[in-house]
Each structure stands twice: as structure tokens, then as C-alpha cells.
Amino acid sequence: MRCAANEAEYRKLIDESGAQHKTRKVNKEQFLSGEPVFTQVFKEVLKQGHNAQSMEKLFKDMIPAIANKI
Length: 70
Description:
Elements: H1 2-5, H2 7-22, H3 28-33, H4 35-45, H5 49-67
Protein name: Globin domain-containing protein
Organism: Fasciola hepatica (Liver fluke)
Domain Globin: 6-65
């Protein structure tokens, strides 16, 4: 969440994550299919609703951005 507050750090995180996922046996579509899973897990783990909503917004932006780097 801290990286998301700083645009440069956020873009660096996305670039690094994209590079890491290129080495794994996962394609863009497979990676994108994980978004609902991550969102659901964080909704269950985070007890305060606004935290879960913030993570969902972050995932909805971050996961497609990373997928475009794969």
C-alpha cells in the first residue's frame, strides 16, 4: 500500500513484479485470472471494510498492469 502512494515506487514495483512473473510458467491470461482470488482472500483477511476496499482497488489496477509486462 505504501508503494501505491508514491507513483514512481508503484511503477517500479509493477516493473519488478512483471519481470519476476516472466520467469514463471504463467501467461497473461492465467495471471489475470488470479485477481478474484486475491481480492476474495484479502476481503476475508482484512477486518476493516475500508482496508479490503482499498486492496481491491489496488489489485484492480496492479494486476492488469503487471499482466501487461508478462
